[in-house]
Design brief:
The chain folds into two domains: 114 residues, Cobalt-precorrin-4 Transmethylase, domain 1 (3-Layer(aba) Sandwich); 123 residues, Tetrapyrrole methylase, C-terminal domain (Methyltransferase, Cobalt-precorrin-4 Transmethylase, Domain 2, 2-Layer Sandwich). Helices cover 33% and strands 22% of the residues. The strands form three sheets. It has a five-stranded parallel beta sheet, sandwiched between helices. A five-stranded mixed beta sheet has the order 6-9-12-10-11, sandwiched between helices. The longest helix has 21 residues. The N and C termini lie far apart (67 Å). The structure holds S-adenosyl-L-homocysteine. S-adenosyl-L-homocysteine (SAH) binds next to strand 12. One of its GO terms (molecular function) is uroporphyrin-III C-methyltransferase activity. Its EC number is 2.1.1.107. Belongs to the precorrin methyltransferase family.
């Protein structure tokens, strides 16, 4: 942590690094809503839906700091400075991030930067996309008959694709939740097949989870690339790999059978 001259921030002021959940405003925590309602300034990302921003008070200044606002390479530095600038001007600052800020959300970089400059910071947890998606699909992530391990992976690393993360990874008995994996789907699939996983290993991709535009594509390691291409799946999308996806397809079929039986009566 870089300990430059700390900024002597007013004693009452505070920066909250808040999780916005996956998109549906009803998945905001009570603590997030309370904090957003008192924030004087909110710095938000691409993955924060407009409906969530409506929770902020009318007078709050809303500052977009997503990918479209600058060069990707220096973006994090720019964001850090923008939060610090806002905190010099305003007493209650919210940095609003998709899902849970601690899960592939770069909250650590912001937290260290702000702390080292003497700002008072607090992280407020959010519902991460993986668990929200599981609930949407009716998937118990750790159902004892299917999976006793959950692996959260990023398809992307700071310097490119995360091929190593998938190398020699066995899917049997596990649920893989892959964030930022869509652009690396080809590589992920190759690594998992090369590592001895069966072509039948089930896969689901959920686009825009919990929003009105949510779409789901299912398949297996053999078919998923084509299925995703045919459906024109776009980011943000979460990939679930493992037998638990079979539980989803089985329960979906069961629900369909029940619906048909009931409508035939
Ligand atoms: N901190 C976030 C993850 C940020 S990384 C969290 O806890 O959920 C960004 C990735 O999250 C996206 O590339 C995508 O894989 C996933 N993601 C975020 N919102 C999503 C949504 N509404 N639907 C599907 N995937 C989503």
């Amino acid at each position: 942590m870089n300990e430059e001259t700390p900024h002597l921030y007013g004693e009452k002021g505070k920066i909250y690094l808040v999780g916005a959940g996956p998109g549906d405003p009803e998945l905001l925590t009570v603590k997030a809503v309370k904090t957003l309602r008192k924030a004087q300034v909110v710095l938000y990302d691409d993955l924060v839906s407009p409906r969530i921003l409506r929770v902020c008070k009318k007078s709050a200044e809303l500052i977009y700091v997503g990918k479209r606002s600058g060069q990707h390479s220096c973006l994090q530095d720019q964001i850090n400075s923008k939060i610090a600038e806002a905190a010099v001007k305003f007493r209650i600052v919210v940095r609003l991030k998709g899902g849970d800020p601690s899960i592939f959300g770069r909250v650590g970089e912001e937290y260290s930067y702000l702390l080292s400059r003497g700002f008072d910071c607090e992280i407020i947890a959010g519902v991460t996309t993986g668990s929200a998606v599981a609930a949407r699909l009716g998937i118990p992530l750790t159902h004892r008959d299917y999976s006793s391990e959950i692996v959260l992976l990023s398809g992307h690393k700071k310097d490119g694709k995360n091929s190593e993360g998938f190398r020699n990874l066995t899917c049997s008995g596990k649920t893989l939740l892959v964030y930022m994996g869509l652009n690396s789907l080809h590589t992920i699939r190759e690594e998992l097949l090369n590592g001895g996983n069966s072509e039948d290993t089930p896969v689901a991709i959920i686009e825009n989870a919990t929003l009105e535009t949510e779409r789901i594509v299912t398949g297996n390691l053999s078919s998923i690339l084509e299925a995703a291409e045919n459906a024109k799946i776009r980011s943000p999308a979460l990939i679930i790999i493992g037998d638990i996806v079979r539980y989803y397809t089985e329960t979906k079929e069961l629900k369909e059978r029940i619906r048909k039986t009931l409508s035939a009566r």
